[in-house]
Structure formats: structure tokens, C-alpha cells
């Protein structure tokens, strides 16, 4: 069985651990530069604040009731690591999918013990980190994802939902689940599926895989097998465009050579940067991870990830690579046989939609190209002749590039000067 | 009054942070042992103080209600969230939305938070919005003026 563990309202939950006053209040976390709302508490959702909504577009009456915080990636990254550490105590097979989601394999565990195991695990995460999580279990990642959604929405599951692929309950649920709700089925594919008469998850499950592969892609074919309960998609297949970009790969053979990891991270990050520029996005944080082969119990196992916030949203490969390398440096442990490493670009925002406020209209391609060339030249000069050799002459612009984080909470877990204060 | 001291070994100033060398055996002060030259293990202060790393957090103390147990304003508290609080433990609890550090205990059948300073009254937990946060395992109090912890 495969479990998807998802932290509930992760960023907001992290903030609440160190500031219990935020409990029960409408809290939102904004992206870098305090532009859009990227995380929401249940209460702020109920006030009608949508995901990705620019903070200045929130109705003033609603805005007054909300607590809007700047993002605190140092805190979220550290809390994410702690959650993953706890999960690793319950199964050696932990695959990090994003800062707040991991897939766990419970292969070889007695199936009838899984509900209880996952309840224990869920309580331990809550106890050790303060973060509430939901767990969805099934035989494929897609079904585990659906089960996780149910664990969150249906209180009777008590946070842990198991969906057997062939049960009546699963069938009944899939029969009323619109295809749009399935992991990896984008809005456009959903419209095309509808023209083929496929509207529910159950109909998709019973569609002809080869036929749909022709109309869509190999991923759509795999989604069908997944809905039937066969685990056949990789996490790389399923990163949602626009939200995160993951590039990772297993090494051909196990390696303990740091140079191999350096090289791999460099290549993966460059590739991720290319993808990012292709979809005209900017990344606000980058996650680096390494792990050993889970099927080699004879070797020491190690799995580590680190999230590093970028000083400003960027799609500059050099900056991404430099940051990823620094991240690798701090999670690399010598003497370990590594099997896989990768990077994930996180909290992407649109290039044309960046919240700098000085681009009154979207740039034409020509202008953008010129800008990029300009930035590239600038970087080159500064690199070769020293920092700040050439700076932009417009103070407004350079101010805009400064990271705005007026509402950032203290970095409670990573800075000695910013620890949470407790009344004695 | 006399204080008994056990000599563990010299501090190696070139050692990596937090790791001090341990001499092979205990020695009486003033009686050097040849074993001193054989360093057999390193003392890791973090490992000594922290049993459950992913559940351990540092918090900063503010106030004077716990001076009786040696916790002063500005001290560094090491808090383990995974420990089950027992009566007598110094704990961190969120009380009415505020993190507070007190000694947890029972009086009769009722749960209370006690200060370690006679100027503060016990806080009954019944009828309050409160949530257990963690157990304080250690307090780091700096004795060197100007030395920040």
C-alpha cells in the first residue's frame, strides 16, 4: 500500500505552532514580496479569499479581519524536514513530493495494521512538530491522493482514509467524482475528456487506455491504470505545471562521490531552470534532496531535503544552480551510498504577473528579450568586475527588487536571535 | 561545604564545534594519567542534551516567574515535544493563546501550573483554552557577562 501524507494548511500551521494566538483566526501567507496569498487557513477560505489572490485585491472589509503574513521559508523548510523525519520513523520508504506532501510505501507491512500505524504516525507528527496531517492510503498514488482528499473532508475517517481499489465504497466515490478532481488531469484535458463522454473518475477508470493514450498522452494512460489500483506513475510525471517543477533522477549505480552529486544537481537545476523559463515563471524557493536506495537494507539509509528561499523571484539558472549547490553542501553526508537526488522549484509565480508594480503593461517579447540581455550583461559585469560594479540607475526599480517581507514572522527554528519567546 | 569535581579532559580548541575530547579514564586531579593522551571518544553536547532531535525546539524565556528553579529572563530553554508531561515537570503550555513556561502539577484532582516564585499564584487549567506544547528538558543560563547564549 502507498500512503500520501499531506500537511493541513502547512504554512499557516507552521506559524500557529509558535504563535498559538493565530489558532481559529483567518490567516493567510503571502508569496515573496507580499504579492499574492499562497496559503490559507480554513477560516480565511471561508471569508472567500481565493488561492493566489493578490493581497491588494482583497475586499477592504474582509482584509481588515484577516491576518496576512509574509512567507517564512526558513521556518517552513525546517518544519518540513521535521515532519519528514517523523515519517521516516514509520517506514523507510519516504518520497518527498513537495514541501508539505510525501508519498510513503508500506510494502511488506501487514495491510490490516496500516490504519492503526497511520493513526499513530499522524499523532506523532502532531505531537513532535505541532503540524496536523492527513493520510490517504491505496495501492496507487492517484488513489492515495483521492483518499487523502477524503481524509481531509470526511470527519468520520479521523484523518486516515483507506481506499481499496475494488471496493464498493471506492466505486461509489469514483462514480460521483468529476475528472477535474483527479491528480494530473488538467482543465483542458478535462474538457476534451468530456467530449469523449468521460465525466467521472469511474468512467475514466473504465476507458480504453491505449485509445486515450492516442488522444492525450502516456500520462493519461497511466492515470487509468492508477485509478484501477496499479502503481505506475512517477512523481516527476505529476508535478503540476505553474506551481512547482521537479527534476530528479536515480544514478545508474550507487555513488558516494560528492562530485557525482554536484554534477547531477547542476544538471537537474539547469533543466528545471529551462522548464521554468519555458513556462515563463519565476521561482521563489528551491528544494534540494538526496536519498539512498530504499531496497538496500544492508546499507545505511539516508534521506534529506532542504528548502532555500531565493532572495527574489528568479528564473536565472546561475542563481538557481548556485543556491542548489549551497543546499547540497549542507545536506551532503560523506560515506553514504546515494541513489537519487533532485531539485524542486517552488512557489512559482508568473513572469508577466510579477508583483513588482512597475510594469504597467505586460512586456512585449522583444522588450523582454532586451531586458533579459541587459540583465545577463549586468550579471556578467558584476561577476567579472566585482559585486555592484554596475547597478540599475532607477532607485524605484532596485527598491522593487528588494524582498518585501514586512509581515514575516521570526525564523523561530533557524536563527538564535529569533527564537519564540515563552512567558516565565 | 565542598564540591566534588571530576576531570574529564582538556578542551581541544581546534576540535569541531560542540565536540570535546574525552580522556580514556577518570583521573584524580593532580595525578596525570598516561591514558590522557589516548582520546577515545568525542563528547557531543547536542547529543547529550537532545534525545529526539526532530521533536526538540529552542525557546527564549522572558519573565521572572521561574527563578526558583533557575530559569531567568533571557535564558535558553530546550524543549522536547515528544515527552509525556508528568506532574512535577517544567512544561511549555499554550494558555489563552500565549506560550508560557511553568511547573505542571496536580492539587487534588485539579491540574495547575505553578510558578517557581512565591510572588506568582498557581494557574488552574480547568476552564481555560490550553494546549500542551512540550516538556522543558534543560535550561541554558549564561554565567559569563556579555556572553550570549
From TrEMBL, chain A:
Residues 2-186 form the UmuC domain. It comes from Vreelandella neptunia. CDD domains: PolY_Pol_V_umuC. It holds the Pfam family IMS_C. Keywords: DNA damage, DNA repair, SOS mutagenesis, SOS response. Belongs to the DNA polymerase type-Y family. PANTHER family: DNA REPAIR POLYMERASE UMUC / TRANSFERASE FAMILY MEMBER, PROTEIN UMUC. This is Y-family DNA polymerase.
Automatic annotation (TrEMBL), chain B:
Its EC number is 2.7.7.7. This is Translesion error-prone DNA polymerase V autoproteolytic subunit. Pfam families: Peptidase_S24 (PF00717). NCBIfam families: PRK10276.1. It is an enzyme of class 2 (transferase). The gene is umuD. It comes from Vreelandella neptunia. Belongs to the peptidase S24 family. PANTHER family: LEXA REPRESSOR, LEXA REPRESSOR-RELATED. Keywords: Autocatalytic cleavage, DNA damage, DNA repair, Hydrolase, Nucleotidyltransferase, SOS response, Transferase.
Amino acid at each position: 500500500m502507498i500512503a500520501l501524507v499531506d500537511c493541513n494548511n502547512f504554512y499557516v500551521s507552521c506559524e500557529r505552532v509558535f504563535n498559538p494566538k493565530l489558532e481559529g483566526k483567518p490567516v493567510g501567507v503571502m508569496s515573496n514580496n507580499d504579492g499574492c496569498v499562497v496559503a490559507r487557513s480554513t477560516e480565511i477560505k471561508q471569508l472567500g479569499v481565493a488561492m493566489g489572490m493578490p493581497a491588494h485585491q482583497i475586499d477592504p472589509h474582509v482584509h481588515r479581519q484577516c491576518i496576512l503574513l509574509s512567507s517564512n521559508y526558513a521556518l517552513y523548510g525546517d518544519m518540513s524536514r521535521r515532519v519528514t523525519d517523523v515519517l521516516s520513523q514509520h517506514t523507510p520508504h519516504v518520497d518527498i513530493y513537495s514541501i508539505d506532501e510525501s508519498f510513503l510505501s508500506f510494502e511488506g507491512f501487514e495491510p490490516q495494521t496500516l490504519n492503526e500505524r497511520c493513526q499513530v504516525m499522524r499523532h506523532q507528527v502532531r505531537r513532535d512538530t505541532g503540524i496536523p496531517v492527513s493520510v490517504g492510503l491505496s495501492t496507487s498514488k492517484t488513489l492515495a491522493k483521492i483518499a487523502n482528499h477524503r481524509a481531509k473532508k470526511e470527519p468520520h475517517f479521523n484523518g486516515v482514509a483507506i481506499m481499496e481499489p475494488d471496493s464498493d465504497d471506492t466505486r461509489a466515490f469514483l462514480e460521483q467524482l468529476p475528472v477535474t478532481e483527479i491528480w494530473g488531469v488538467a482543465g483542458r484535458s478535462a474538457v476534451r475528456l468530456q467530449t469523449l463522454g468521460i465525466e467521472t473518475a469511474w468512467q475514466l477508470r473504465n476507458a480504453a487506455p491505449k485509445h486515450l493514450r492516442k488522444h492525450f498522452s502516456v500520462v493519461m494512460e497511466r492515470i487509468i491504470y492508477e485509478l484501477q489500483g496499479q502503481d505506475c506513475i512517477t512523481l516527476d510525471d505529476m508535478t503540476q505545471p505553474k506551481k512547482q517543477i521537479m527534476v530528479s533522477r536515480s544514478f545508474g549505480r550507487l555513488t558516494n562521490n560528492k562530485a557525482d552529486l554536484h554534477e547531477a544537481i547542476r544538471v537537474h537545476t539547469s533543466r528545471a531552470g529551462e522548464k521554468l523559463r519555458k513556462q515563463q515563471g519565476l521561482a521563489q524557493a528551491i528544494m534540494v534532496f538526496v536519498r539512498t536506495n530504499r531496497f538496500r537494507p544492508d546499507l545505511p539509509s539516508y534521506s534529506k531535503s532542504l528548502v532555500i528561499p531565493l532572495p527574489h523571484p528568479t528564473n536565472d539558472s546561475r542563481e538557481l544552480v548556485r543556491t542548489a549547490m549551497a543546499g547540497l553542501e549542507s545536506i551532503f553526508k560523506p560515506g553514504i551510498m546515494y541513489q537519487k537526488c533532485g531539485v524542486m522549484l517552488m512557489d512559482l509565480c508568473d513572469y508577466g504577473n510579477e508583483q513588482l508594480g512597475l510594469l504597467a503593461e505586460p512586456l512585449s517579447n522583444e522588450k523582454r528579450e532586451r531586458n533579459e540581455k541587459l540583465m545577463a550583461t549586468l550579471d556578467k559585469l558584476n561577476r567579472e568586475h566585482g559585486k555592484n560594479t554596475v547597478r540599475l540607475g532607477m532607485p524605484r526599480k532596485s527598491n522593487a527588487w528588494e524582498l518585501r517581507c514586512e509581515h514575516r514572522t521570526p525564523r523561530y527554528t533557524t536563527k538564535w536571535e529569533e527564537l519564540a519567546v515563552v512567558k516565565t | 561545604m565542598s564540591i566534588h569535581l571530576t576531570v574529564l579532559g582538556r578542551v581541544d580548541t581546534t576540535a569541531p564545534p560542540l565536540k570535546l575530547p574525552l580522556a580514556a579514564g577518570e583521573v584524580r586531579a593532580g595525578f596525570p594519567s598516561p591514558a590522557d593522551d589516548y582520546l577515545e571518544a568525542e563528547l557531543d553536547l547536542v547529543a547529550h542534551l537532545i534525545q529526539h532531535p526532530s521533536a526538540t525546539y529552542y525557546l527564549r524565556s522572558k519573565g521572572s516567574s521561574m527563578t526558583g528553579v533557575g530559569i531567568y529572563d533571557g535564558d535558553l530553554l530546550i524543549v522536547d515535544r515528544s515527552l509525556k508531561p508528568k506532574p512535577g515537570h517544567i512544561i511549555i503550555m499554550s494558555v489563552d493563546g500565549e506560550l508560557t513556561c511553568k511547573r505542571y502539577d496536580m492539587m487534588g484532582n485539579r491540574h495547575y501550573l505553578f510558578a517557581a516564585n512565591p510572588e506568582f499564584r498557581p494557574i488552574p487549567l480547568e476552564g481555560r483554552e490550553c494546549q500542551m506544547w512540550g516538556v522543558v528538558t534543560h535550561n541554558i543560563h549564561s554565567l559569563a557577562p556579555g556572553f550570549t547564549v
